[in-house]
Amino acid sequence: MTGKFTHVDEHGAARIVDITARAATQRRALARCRVMVGAEVTRLLGNGPRATRTLEEARVAGTMAAKRTSTLIPLCHPIGINMIHLSFSHGEGFVQIETATGAFERTGLEMEALTACAVAALTIVGEFHLQRTQTQHRIFDPVGEVGRALRRLAAGGGWQPALRRVR
Question: Which of 27, 25, 167 is nearest to 86 (CA)?
Answer without folding.
Answer: 167
